[in-house]
Specification:
Length: about 300
């Protein structure tokens, strides 16, 4: 562990701002994690992100030793629906985490990709090779993987510029009144449960925009398509809850008592449209909903 001692030569309104300006290589978000973990003290007392730093204050940051990770290839079955020298499109199964983190070191999509594909982009480092965008562990469906850095940069730019289109389908609790609409909110960490995301005031989160359209109506349920304009963590699930019609089977944002025996939310990334990084061809991919999703729909009565 490295201990860095800083003596404030100028006053600063916030400790996290002071550290992000004085700790080389640390972003403000990384600094906040240090503070939250109790690794920062001011004049011998545990620091808070929002506290003022006065001239002459002694600020000590205890920097943990870097952790070296090794991601091993694993022979895990993958539904690769398209592959060439630059990209691969995967139909991810429900229950598979995209990359290691939060205690997941094996059985991830990255472990499987390292086994099945000969090359992956290195832009996101050894933990997330090839990963351009993610979908939740218990959400199924399509995501594109970059096999080299040029493809990664192109795909990332398409997502940022919203030219890469992502379409989802979900079964919602209850009946939506509108046939179509738009949800625009700000999403950030839930103030009462840091594991969850939530709709928050603008200064507490990032803008999240989702369009939706009803695909089918059932007695007590609505099959709905969602079109992402932004890609915030848990965006569709949070917006569905915000509409007061959470996704069926959602263990985090759904109703307390679930009617169907499910292993996660009935949310599926069914369609992906992108421009090929090398050829410039507009490509469209589709993956049908999984059988367990179909089984639930077969038990419902159309209205």
């Amino acid at each position: 562990m490295e201990k860095i001692i800083l003596i404030a030569e100028e006053a600063c309104s916030r400790l996290d701002v002071f550290l992000s300006e004085n700790l080389q290589g640390y972003t403000r978000s990384a600094v906040k994690k240090l503070i939250e973990n109790g690794a920062v003290s001011v004049n011998g007392k545990k620091g808070k992100a929002s506290q003022e730093v006065k001239v002459g204050n002694s600020v000590i940051a205890e920097i943990p030793d870097p952790i070296t990770y090794e991601v091993k290839p694993e022979n895990i079955p993958l539904d690769i629906i398209y592959e060439d020298d630059d990209i691969a499109v995967i139909n991810k199964a429900q229950g598979m985490t995209v990359h290691m983190g939060n205690g997941n070191y094996e059985g991830t999509l990255v472990n499987a990709l390292l086994y099945h594909l000969k090359s992956l982009s290195g832009i996101n480092g050894v933990i997330r090779p090839g990963i351009v965008h993610r979908i939740d562990k218990d959400t199924s469906g399509l995501l594109v993987v970059a096999k080299n850095d040029a493809a990664h940069l192109s795909l990332s730019k398409q997502i940022a510029e919203k030219s890469c289109k992502r379409q989802y389908i979900a079964l919602l609790e209850g009946n939506l009144k509108e046939d179509s609409g738009n949800v625009t909110t700000y999403i950030g960490r839930c103030p009462t449960d840091r594991i969850k995301m939530a709709v928050v005031p603008p200064e507490k989160g990032k803008i999240a925009i989702t369009d939706f359209a009803v695909a089918e109506r059932y007695s007590g349920y609505t099959l709905c398509r969602f079109y992402l304009q932004t890609g915030r963590t848990h965006q569709i699930r949070v917006h569905a809850k915000h509409l007061k019609h959470p996704v069926v089977g959602d263990p985090v944002y759904g109703v307390a008592k679930q009617k169907f025996p499910l292993n996660g939310q009935l949310l599926h990334a069914e369609k992906l449209t992108l421009t090929h990084p090398k050829t410039g061809e507009v490509m469209e991919f589709y993956a049908d909903i999984p059988q367990y999703f179909k089984n639930v729909l077969s038990k419902l009565k159309r209205v």
